[in-house]
Amino acid sequence: MALTGGNRHVITQLTPLLEAIPPVRGRRGRPRRRPDSLYADRAYDFDKHRNLVRARGIEPRFARRSTEHGSGLGVHRWVVEQTIALLHWIRRLRTRWEIRDDIHQAFLSIACSIICWRRLNKHSI
């Protein structure tokens, strides 16, 4: 998760988010690697962004511009949309009242931790 201004375009955060992805742990003794693919919406469908993702060894799965909906990527993107909806359940995060961004970042981190804990707790039973 990354905290930016409300008037920033999502494209500006592609590089920092790609650099923030930690290597996926494999079996013991195997080298760590990056995720195999990255799913994104039509805003990222430019050769510049595809090449940036490929340079890191990740296959871009971006929805194509000027095509009809129903590409099948919604199955994977639904997880992200659901998490954003869960963040909006927390009233403190729905509208930003804090002036300092570090305080808002702390509340956002706590909310993400709670969402992950609930999801892991639900699947472990």
Task: Describe this structure in a few short sentences.
Residues 2-114 form the Transposase IS4-like domain. Helix content is 48%, strand content 6%.
Structure notes:
- It is globular, with a radius of gyration of 17 Å.
- It has five helices and two strands.
- It has a domain of 71 residues.
- The two termini are 27 Å apart.
- The protein has a two-stranded parallel ribbon.
- The model has no long low-confidence stretch (mean pLDDT 79).
- Strand 1, helix 2 and strand 2 form a beta-alpha-beta unit.
- By secondary structure, it is mostly helical.
- One of its GO terms (molecular function) is transposase activity.
- It holds the Pfam family DDE_Tnp_1.
- InterPro entries: Transposase_11.
- One of its GO terms (biological process) is DNA transposition.
- The average pLDDT score comes to 79
H/E series: HEHEHHH
| Overall outline | globular
Give the low-confidence spans. none
Number of strands: 2
Count of discrete alpha- or pi-helical segments spanning 4 or more residues: 5
Which structural class do the helices and strands define? Answer: mainly alpha
- What integer value in Å does the Rg equal? 17 Å
Our measurement of the CA-to-CA distance between the termini, rounded to an integer number of angstroms, reads 27 Å
Strand percent estimate: 5-15%
Most strands sheet:
2 strands, parallel
Taking strands numbered 1, 2, ... along the chain, how are they ordered across the largest sheet?
1-2
Secondary structure: helix percent? 40-55%
Protein name: IS4 family transposase
Organism: Amycolatopsis methanolica 239
Pfam family, one: DDE_Tnp_1
Domain Transposase IS4-like: 2-114
